[in-house]
Design a protein that fits this description.
single chain; 502 residues; mainly beta; Jelly Rolls; five-stranded mixed β-sheet; 3 helices; 39% strand
Length: 502
């Protein structure tokens, strides 16, 4: 499927000699409070050291640039260089002059430190080459120790935010996925208001997560009731306390911002649980649908529905009539766990198998116009709670389904995920918002169409708002008179066919 809109891509191209930034000296520091965080700051690699300047990260100052930031809350702060292959030294200080600086944290290429609200920090970036430096804060939330777990209150569905940037591990941290040891665990606590099933969904976090849930019945020992990657389902009992632990899935990339959604899962079998009740999608060129699968059941005498000794099979059914002959992809991108997808021709119940795969990327099928295809998604994994189905032409694999459909950043279910859908009602389709980096769940008509060109020191910054007030920016530290060029390119598919308009 091709989109029907041109997309403007703006690139900053710098020309001429190396740039000399205004924040080369401590007295001319760039204030991050005057900018929007997260922020990407450009440094030219042509800075200089000042008399009396301290050594940064163990080496004498050489080509340093200075930033300052007054913390708005007590939370972790990150500084990360993005481009330079040469050593980049980062140092954070408090103090009012070079002679009174007190080191807070120092490191190479990437640095995290715990900021204290209202304190002014001075940040030195010492780099031998031009670079982009990423500055950002993290939301507070999540306790480092289970005994101090943050309480979750409110009516589901709800979202809790936090981070494990500076988290540690302790003896009571879960080790359910041996031999992977805990890395940076944080804890929340929730009391179930009623019996039922809930989903913990951390797919919108800034790193791959592993989740563990413990139940604390009154006057009884804790019980591990669920564990998995990114998203898990939990059966809960009214009045019992539950502790939720979030950790990194991979030891090398296990820290960052955490977004954890809690929501109820329907406990009755879904309407398309059986083959005879397959949900009819009609005959659109692109179809998106979905359903909760956790409490689906197996059906006797139906293909690929075999109850295993350790867990019953669960399946959902759809049917779709091909509108035009061609190759189509049937996928479960957007589902929250591992599942099989199978495609058949009918008529039901005498189905003929066409293709299948245990992969959310699904299968390609050479479909014939007017033919009805039955689609089955099934799973034997209790961590899989919801299944999503996507059907679309496969002549050009759209980035939309690969990137937008597979991530959990947006809580858009079923038809809401269709590229042409506009769930937030702001007049911008999902595919357009995906291309612009904005949030399809929030009505935001201004930002994607009117990015702001604002001053950044002596240079300029082009910025626009995307997911949940995250501001992305491209900036230049060009001094006055230095040329700045914007190049516009357009694309019809977002798949790399960028062209410069004439």
């Amino acid at each position: 499927m091709k989109s029907v809109f041109p997309l403007l891509l703006c690139l900053f191209l710098f020309s001429g000699a190396k740039l000399h930034a205004d924040n080369d000296s401590f007295s001319q520091t760039t204030s991050l409070n005057d900018l929007t965080l997260p922020h990407y700051g450009y440094i030219a690699g042509a800075g200089s050291a000042e008399p009396g300047e301290p050594a940064h990260a163990g080496s004498p100052a050489a080509r340093s640039y200075w930033y300052k930031w007054q913390a708005t809350s007590s939370s972790p702060f990150m500084i990360r260089e993005m481009l330079n292959a040469s050593p980049v030294r980062i140092a954070v200080y408090t103090g009012s002059s070079l002679s009174t600086l007190v080191p807070v944290a120092q490191g190479m290429k990437e640095l995290y430190f715990q900021a204290t609200a209202e304190v002014i920090y001075h940040i030195a970036i010492d780099s031998t080459g031009a670079d982009l430096v990423h500055f950002r804060t993290f939301p507070t939330g999540g306790a480092d120790q289970r005994g101090n777990a943050d309480a979750i209150t409110g009516t589901l569905p709800l979202k809790v935010s936090g981070n494990n940037v500076l988290a540690t591990t302790s003896n009571d941290d879960p080790t359910w996925h041996s031999p992977t040891a805990p890395v940076a665990t944080v804890w929340w606590k929730w009391t179930a208001p009623s019996n039922g099933s809930i989903r913990l969904d951390a797919r919108a976090s800034g790193f791959h997560t592993r989740l563990t849930a413990y139940e604390y019945p009154p006057a009884a020992n804790p019980i591990q009731v669920s564990a998995g990657f990114e998203s898990v389902g939990v059966e809960v009992t009214a009045g019992n306390d539950y502790y939720f632990c979030v950790d990194g899935r991979e030891s090398s990339y296990a820290r960052g911002e955490i977004t954890l959604w809690l929501e109820w899962i329907p406990t009755t079998p879904p309407s398309n649980d059986n083959l005879a009740d397959a949900r009819d999608l009609g005959s659109p060129l692109v179809a998106c649908d979905g359903e909760w699968i956790r409490h689906a059941t197996a059906e006797a005498g139906v293909p690929n529905e075999t109850a295993q000794p350790w867990i019953p099979d669960r399946s959902l059914w759809w049917k779709w009539t091909c509108p035009a002959s061609g190759t189509y992809r049937f996928s479960s991108l957007g589902s929250d766990g591992t599942s099989w997808i199978h495609v058949y021709t009918g008529p039901a119940p005498g189905l003929t198998y066409v293709a299948g795969m245990m992969d959310r990327n699904g299968v390609k099928v050479s479909a014939t116009a007017g033919t009805t295809y039955w689609v089955q998604i099934n799973s034997q994994f209790r961590t899989t709670t919801r299944a999503e189905l996507n059907i679309h032409p496969a002549y050009s694999e759209p980035s939309y389904f690969v990137r937008f459909g597979d991530v959990g950043v947006f809580r858009l279910y079923g038809p809401q995920r269709h590229p042409d859908a506009d769930p937030d009602g702001d007049g911008l389709s999902n595919q357009l918002e995906f291309a612009l980096g904005t949030n399809p769940e929030i009505n935001d008509p201004e930002n994607p169409l009117r990015p702001s060109l604002v001053r950044n020191g002596a240079g300029w910054q082009l910025q626009w708002t995307e997911v949940e007030s995250y501001t992305r920016s491209l900036s230049s530290s060009n001094p006055p008179g230095r040329p700045l060029t914007l190049t516009a390119r357009t694309s019809l598919t977002l798949d790399g066919d960028w062209v410069t308009p004439t």
